[in-house]
Structure formats: structure tokens, C-alpha cells
Amino acid sequence: MTDIEIAQKNVMAPIVEVASKIGITEDDMELYGKYKAKLSMKALRALQEKASDPKKRGKLILTTAVTPTPAGEGKSTVSIGLGDGLNKIGKKAVIALREPSLGPCFGVKGGACGGGYAQIVPMEDINLHFTGDIHAISVANNLISAIIDNHIHQTNALRIDPRTISWKRVVDLNDRALRNITIGLGGKTNGVPREDHFCISVASELMAIVCLSKSISDLKKRIDNITVAQTYDKRPIKFGEFKCTGAIAALLKDSIKPNIVQTLEKNPVFVHGGPFANIAQGTNSVNATLCALATGDYVVTEAGFAADLGAEKFMDIKCRTAGISPDVVVIVATVRAIKMHGGMAKADLATPSVSALQKGFENLAVHLENIAKFGVPSVVAINKFVTDTNEEIEMLKSLCEAKGAKAVLCEGWEKGGEGMKDLATVVAETAEKGEANFHYLYDSTISLSEKIKTVARQIYRASDVDFAPSVLKKLREFEELGYKELPVCIAKTQNSISHDPKLMGAPKDFIFPVRDVQLYSGAGFVVALAGDIMTMPGLPKLPAALNIDVDDDGMISGLF
């Protein structure tokens, strides 16, 4: 059966029953039908208060992966299966994940709720409109754009230079035709003509802000602090100067509340926020993680893509903001993906090849080394595929052990939580040892350019960074404005440890090109764009949308 068929055959429990397992009552929730809900603000504040005491928090388990390949890795599947596996061995475990974006759903990946018998449900709802969070963020983002353009059209009392507007419009779809547009055409009544741009909603600063805000007051403060443009005399304009922050926050009042759903095995899951990891910080909301830490003895969360992207940003951005740190990191790997990093073609992956596995292991080795740089122990989860041979699996285990890492075979896709009990046992034991000595990759006091160099050299293995002259100028301006101590969020391809998607395996000693930087003063970080990364993806030649349909009973097919 397909993933969606497995999900549709599952009989869900009422979300009230699922939430009660972790002490959340019906009065603590705002129900969106029988099977999904949001926490009330009162319940959110109570759980935040509990999580503020480190002694009352559960153990935090971060799931990341090797560099993505067309062969698939299954990070979400392992995260969900691990949560179910921990509950299977008698641990009180809660999962905290991101909300899927419609871009990948209709583009390359299809759905993003796990796979096989390690899924979260209602799968169709979560993948599509869910509780409306991403739509609300998109509308709020575009209201900011409308307010800016209306101000210029009406009086431009702030003397905004339209050429300097950095705030982009958004839509939660892959639409390359909207990357660069011209607006305000058609005469004086239609506004002031200018160049504008779209990015995908989940790469927007407002998505990052919602995911990093703990309260509506915090949200308002961050929205006020968004830098949207400059005046003709180069003075930065903050959105707070438009006196419309309350309206934006009103659109987001529900989006800040974490959502609660369930796994196929009726275990609770917080699903909230969806920033991309190749562009934004790539983790679920701070609120969802804190709520999970307050209600579970073990919390499984994930960071988008591989350890060079999602895990680094989790450590250096989210952990700084939330005041948390992981007790153990799980790195998901597959025999198939490792062989692709070893130079094997996708069409040949069913053919056993220990030599390709040995060569491709260099990629996993880099990610193991990267996690160690944060002082956190790691465990490798070998996500099993039917074509894997015992020889290959044992070889991968031995390669991991030679690097000082325990590797565990996972069969969550086929067997659900039962197939993840071995990993759950090892992860729980590792977390309980208390060996984590967490620290950030860089100190907040060094310059922004040095922070970018540190990530590029230590995490990506670049020999140096090539800053465009305009980038160095902007970084100096950001520091002069008082933003020197912000962390950096590097936007680059997810398909390589480097900036070049064609460089698989473990590239090193390359020049890392930074072509632009953007100030996300509301979110609280500086984005550095490297290589050819786009903040608005395009659809592939054969998009996943070709496979999706719905019948007269509203039954969806082909979502994944």
C-alpha cells in the first residue's frame, strides 16, 4: 500500500484522548474537528512556565540526516517511528515536528508526514491546509507589503526609497515566474511602479518570527523590529513606524499556538511551524518544542535536511533563542543514500556494492564530526530498505563504530514502533548518560563575516569564503546598526555539504561564495545566500501535482 492508503485505513483516536496521555485536557485545547487541535493560550503559558525549569524538562532528541539524495533518507519517518518506539519500550515520549509546505507537496517531494507505518495523521489535512497557520502567515506577510506600498502611494511621509524595499511578498507554492515582478502598473490609481519579488512562505522572515516567538507580545516586538526598507538618506525603516503591528499580530494570534495531532499508534505529536532549512532556520516552533519538553520525558524533534544545514541552525539559532540544548542527536542514513554519495547511479542502487558504501561513508563521517563539534553524542539510525543486504548493513555498522558511533538498524517504515525499539533503547540510554556538553559553534561577539567563515570552514569544510564586495559592505552596515551579535543563517543547497549541488560525498577545500546577505532583524539573525540558492523554488518537469486527485467522497489519492 502507499503511504496515503496506510494512513486512510488507520482508525484515529479522538484527539482529546490522545492529548490526555500527556496531561492536556479538552479545556486546554481549541478543537479543529475530532482529530486535530490547538493549545489554548492559557495552556501554552502554563507549559512554557513548566519548561522554564530545566529540571522539569524531558530529554531532547534531535533527528538529522546525511546529505539528501534522490534515493531518499526518511528523516521524518525515523523521527515518528522513534517516538512510537520510545513509547513501546515504556517511555513517555512526545514528538515535535514542522508543518509541511504546499510547495514540496505539489513539487518534488510529495507529502511530508513520515511513511509506511511511521506516520502522523490526519495525513491529508496536515499536508494540505491543516489549521491554516501557513495561510495566515502568508496573508499577514502580504498585508505588510500592502501597507508599505500604500504608504508610498498616499504620502510617503517616511520618505521611503522604493528601490530599497527588502520586504518580499510570499505564496506557499513553487512558482518561479513570481521571483521577479513589476507592480504598480496601469496609472496613478494603481500605486507606484517598482520591482518586487516573491519568496515561498516557509522561507519568509515572518515564518521565522512566528516560530521563534513565545508570546503575542514577543511576536509584536519582533514584527516592530522588521527592517523593510531605507529612506532616501539611507536611514533604515522598521515596520513599527507604520503603526500597524497590531493588525499583523491579529492575523497571527492563532498561528502562534502549537497544533496537536497523533501518530498511527495514537501517540501525541506537536506539529507547528514550517521554515525551510536550506533558506531559513529549518525547525519547528520554539513553543511546540517547549510544550513537548514540559509534557514528555523524552522529546523527539527534527531539523530540516542534513546536519550541515538543519542541525547547525538548530544549535546556533533555535537553541540560543529558546534556551535549550539536545541530549543526543540521531543521524539518519540509508545504505542507498550512502552508495549514491559513493558515486553509484540511482538506477543501480539495488545492486550490492560494499565499495560504493565505503566511499560514500565519507558523507556520514562529516556529519558525525559536525555534531561532535557541538559537544553532543550521536547515534546513527540505519533506515532499512528492502534492497539492503545484510553484508551492506553490517559494513555500515562497522564503519560507524570505527568512527566511535553506535549504528542501529531501523524498520519503522515496515513495522512502526515495534521496528524502532532497538533504536529507542540505545537513544534513551545515551540520553540518560548525560554526556552532552553542549556549546555553540561560534561566540556571538565575533563579527558577522567571521561567523559565516566559521560555519563554512568547520561545517562545510571550505578552505575560504569569497564575499562579494557588496556583501562585506552590507555586513559592516548591519554591525554599525547594532546587529553584530546576531547569529547567521546560511542559505545554500541541501544537496551537498558545499554550495554546489553537484558535489556529492564529502567535498573539501573549495571556495564558498556568498553573493548576498539579508538582515532579518525581526527574527533575529542574518541570512547569507550562497551559490545559486533561490528563496522561491520552481516546479520540476514532472511535479508531484500530476499524481494527486480527489473523488466525489472527498477521498484524496496520490499525495504520497
What does this structure look like?
The chain is of the alpha/beta class and 560 residues long. Strand 17 (378-383), helix 15 (390-402) and strand 18 form a beta-alpha-beta unit. Strands 1, 2, 3, 4, 5, 6, 13, 14, 15, 16, 17 and 18 form a 12-stranded mixed sheet that branches. The chain has a 4-stranded mixed sheet with strand order 19-21-22-20. The mean pLDDT is 96.
Question: Which SSEs are present, and which pair or pack?
Answer:
Blueprint: H1 3-9, H2 15-20, E1 29-31, E2 37-39, H3 41-51, E3 59-65, H4 75-88, E4 93-97, H5 102-106, E5 114-115, E6 118-121, H6 123-127, H7 133-154, E7 169-171, E8 181-183, E9 194-196, E10 198-200, H8 205-212, H9 216-224, E11 227-230, E12 236-238, H10 245-251, E13 259-263, E14 268-271, H11 286-295, E15 298-302, H12 307-322, E16 328-333, H13 335-341, H14 354-372, E17 378-383, H15 390-402, E18 406-410, H16 412-415, H17 421-433, H18 448-458, E19 464-467, H19 469-480, E20 488-491, E21 511-520, E22 525-530, E23 549-550, E24 556-557
Parallel strand pairs: 3-15, 3-16, 4-14, 4-15, 7-10, 16-17, 17-18, 19-21, 20-22
Antiparallel strand pairs: 1-2, 2-13, 5-6, 6-13, 8-9, 11-12, 13-14, 21-22, 23-24
Helix pairs in contact: 3-11, 4-17, 7-10, 9-10, 12-14, 13-14, 14-15
